[in-house]
Amino acid sequence: MMTATKSSLTAPLQPPAGAPDTSDTTNPQGELENLKHRSFEYSQKNAVLVPVAALGVGGMLLYWLRSGRKIKTIDMGDGWWGSGERPLRGKEDESIRPFKIETSDIEIEDLHRRLDNFRFTPHVEGAAFHYGFNSSYLQKVVAYWRNQFDWRKQVEVLNKYPHFHTTIEGIDIHFIHVKPSYVPHGRAVQPLLMVHGWPGSFYEFYKIIPLLTEPARHGLNEGDVVFEVICPSIPGYGFSEAPHQKGFDSIATARIFHKLMNRLGFKEYYLQGGDWGSRITTNMAQMLPQSVKGLHLNCVFISKQGLGRLICIMLGAYVPWLVGLSREDARRFYPFMQKNVYDVLRESGYLHIQGTKPDTAGCGLNDSPVGLAAYILEKFSTWTDKSFLYKDDGGLESKYSLDELLTNVMIYWVTSSIVSSMRYYKENLSKDPSLNAYSRYGIYVPTGIAAFPQEILHTPHVWAKDVYKNIITYSYMPRGGHFAAFEEPKLLAQDIMQFVRKVEQL
Fold first, then answer.
1. Above 70 in pLDDT, residue 48?
2. DSSP per residue over 154-185, as a string?
3. How many other CB atoms are there within 10 angstroms of residue 341's CB atom?
4. Per-residue b/e over 292-304, b at no fewer than 16 CB within 10 Å?
5. What is 227-270 written as a DSSP string?
6. Looking at residue 304, what is its pLDDT?
7. Catalytic site residues?
8. Would you say the C-alpha torsion 123, 129, 131, 134 has a positive or negative sign?
9. Pairing of strands 189-195, 226-232
10. pTM of the prediction?
11. Using CA atoms, how far apart are residues 440 and 443, in angstroms rounded to an integer?
12. Is residue 390 over pLDDT 50?
């Protein structure tokens, strides 16, 4: 085009035959300026039209690509977990009913009688917690439980937050719902569903709830993010009714919790979980991603196998950067056999029992408060810090108070829910022994991961991305283990706030 323009400038301009000669033969410079002006205008138009056209075509192409990639989701389905057949007629009672935890003299007297009849088993000398719960330290726990622990006082503590029941798919679902007492003008309150695991309960979240609902009052400056928190009890745990039918797994739980949030009037919400809570909230994100604003986890289990993973493990010990591992990943991950095989085998004996015949062991635990406490509290020792295995007291009181630990045990005891909570392993593992069946459903919702150093297994960022496709934050936490909200509530609260703030800015 520029060549044509130049040639037109060098050739004399001739009018058509018969046309009057209007050229200014006396001013060729004027004609030159006129052509330059027209060429400049044409270039200006191109400078605007070409990028606009490219942007339009690019936008249409991007829309076509996105619309063509349909995200696979887990079918929500439906279920019935009540006693007997599902009623053919009549709508389920969808009312939200206030609930209050209560106790009685009879309940406390029965507990004391059973504690008084505790049969002591001498431990092996120097055993610490290598054989399980140290029986000498158990004597101390039982003595405190019998003579100093005040269950009535702890019931008051439990009732400081509002409790509710609602019936979903034939069973009563228990939850607490805590709203901020004060919200600055113009500040949006974010609904957050927090889900516990085993052998925990909704009580694990009692120390983190005020940090999330009233951050400024508790020394957190993240006042731009405020939550209302909903903490349900998994069906079969605590004050949620146990399923009466076989097959109640994490998919059924995810569906019920979506129904719960919908019943409370929420269309979009954040999710947070660890242990079983991590799997349940992950399934929720896979089931209804349009309802999940963000997913925050403090426990991630990725069980993908294959040659590529094996090569990654082998090379990672020597050149971690080559396979996407950070220095911190390598520190937490190696030596591989010790941290990912031997330690896991030592800590997972319960898993095989509960995944196969939970009722056999569960019946004994349901009848003996001392046996129940030993079985549960042993997990709060080595799952909090692996080095506690070498301590005679399991390191329990270095992280928690006996009142806190025994309150969690009492939730299982007074509700007789230890057996139904153990069945949850069988219902899930019998269908999916590797807990990996749903990993083919990628999680595309914004995801935050808080990796605590004493977690049972460490999942590197590069591995987490195989399943969680939209990781917004991945934090190497400075301390803490499996029961993050219970042990390090401030650290976890800060990480949740950081994650939500970033999501809200997307």
1. no
2. HHHHHTTS-EEEEEETTEEEEEEEE--S---T
3. 11
4. bbbbbbbbbbbee
5. EEEEEEPPTTSTTSPPPSSTT--HHHHHHHHHHHHHHTT-SSEE
6. 72
7. 275, 425, 482
8. positive
9. parallel
10. 0.85
11. 9
12. yes
